[in-house]
UniProtKB/TrEMBL annotation:
Belongs to the ATP:guanido phosphotransferase family. Its EC number is 2.7.14.1. The keyword Kinase applies. The lineage of its organism: Bacteria, Bacillati, Bacillota, Bacilli, Bacillales. Appears to be allosterically activated by the binding of pArg-containing polypeptides to the pArg-binding pocket localized in the C-terminal domain of McsB. This is Protein-arginine kinase. PROSITE patterns: PHOSPHAGEN_KINASE, PHOSPHAGEN_KINASE_C. Residues 24-255 form the Phosphagen kinase C-terminal domain. It comes from Oceanobacillus polygoni. A motif (RDXXRA motif of the pArg binding pocket involved in allosteric regulation) lies at residues 338-343.
Length: 354
């Protein structure tokens, strides 16, 4: 296995699996922040210490297998091209912050891309684990097992009162961020999402765009995650998040039924117009592509568009991002060139599907 394995395909292998409520919930993620007990945190640590940590993980875990997470590939961020970095971010295998710390940063990625371990990001260790659909409890259980495996060789920074100690005070306690990626087109169309976001924030949760903090909700994709990490157990945090997510699922289903009943022909027209744009455009910008892809995915989920995979939203949302487009072209592209190639790749993908 090599880096090419992770950047040549838009979809990670685990994304082909079906999960509960996957017509609305695209994925569930658990991320655990951990630090070495006797090493200064990355933002202040000496470069030699960070290099020692990177070398430790390469020596101890490269090509190791833990349960179903096979053949961990070790990748030094400094060895990547700017395009390769972008692709890994677009596939959610690394964070935007990690690639900015490239001199001493690294990542370990399992063969199925379900687990990635970021090294020397904001914390020494950030373990993230994905499951398709709404599977937060299962993701948490698996993350605990993987965390225990790492802890067999690492003495974590931990306080009996405060919990896990982290670089940022907002992560102290469990050190956990639980999140779900949701496709909420009907709540967006009916404008209900605008009043729901403030209500969700009052419950200690945060709503962000597809690439986390500071990102836009392209294609009606929203990331819902916990803000509180101190004073609650991991299981309680996950239970609270899952309760809100289930309510959002119910509201989205009701909104879809309402639109179908009240504006069925207008909705079909919107969906097929978007499908036509994707099938025949020669130039398409990322925002327009995201909007059309969202419409088509909604059409698939409602049975309006048949014989097309529901994975199309996941795949095309990555396939049409700047890094992946340039990786495909094998050269740097300006915005106009990306718009042309984006349209071409979408047409090609839909033609293959049909």
């Amino acid at each position: 296995m090599s880096l090419e394995h992770f950047i040549k395909d838009a979809l990670s292998p685990w994304m082909y699996e079906q999960g509960p409520d996957n017509d609305i919930v695209m994925s569930s993620r658990i991320r655990l922040a951990r630090n070495f007990a006797t090493v200064t945190y990355p933002i202040l640590a000496e470069h030699e210490k960070l290099d020692d940590i990177r070398s430790f993980f390469k020596k101890e875990y490269e090509h190791q297998t833990f349960q179903s997470y096979k053949d961990l590939e070790f990748v030094s961020i400094k060895d990547l091209t700017p395009v390769e970095k972008s692709v890994l971010v677009e596939k959610h295998l690394v964070s935007p912050h990690l690639v900015k710390r490239d001199e001493h940063a690294a990542v370990m990625i399992s063969q199925n891309e379900q687990v990635s371990v970021m090294i020397n990001e904001e914390d020494h260790i950030r373990i993230q684990l994905y499951f398709p659909g709404l599977q937060l409890k299962k993701a948490l259980e698996e993350a605990f097992h993987f965390d225990d495996w790492i802890e067999e060789k690492v003495n974590y920074a931990y306080d009996e009162t405060k919990g896990y100690l982290t670089s940022c005070p907002t992560n102290v306690g469990t050190g956990m961020r639980a999140s779900v990626m949701m496709h909420l087109p009907a709540l967006s169309m009916t404008k209900q999402i605008n009043r729901m976001i403030p209500a969700i924030s009052q419950l200690g949760l945060v709503v962000r765009g597809i690439y986390g903090e500071g990102s836009e909700a392209l294609g009606n994709i929203f990331q819902i995650s916990n803000q509180i990490t101190l004073g609650k157990s991991e299981k309680d945090i996950v239970a609270d998040l899952e309760s809100v997510v289930n309510q959002l699922i119910d509201h989205e289903r009701v909104a879809r039924g309402f639109i179908m009943k009240r504006s069925g022909i207008e909705l079909e027209d919107r969906i097929f117009r978007s499908y036509g744009v994707l099938q025949y455009s020669r130039i398409i910008e990322s925002k327009e592509a995201a909007k059309c892809i969202s419409d088509v995915r909604l059409g698939i989920d409602l049975g309006i568009i048949e014989n097309t995979s529901g994975n199309i939203l996941n795949e095309l949302m990555v396939l049409t991002q700047p890094g992946f487009l340039q990786q495909y072209a094998n050269r740097t592209l300006n915005a106009s060139e990306r718009d042309v190639l984006r349209a071409s790749l979408i047409r090609e993908r839909l033609k293959l599907e049909n």
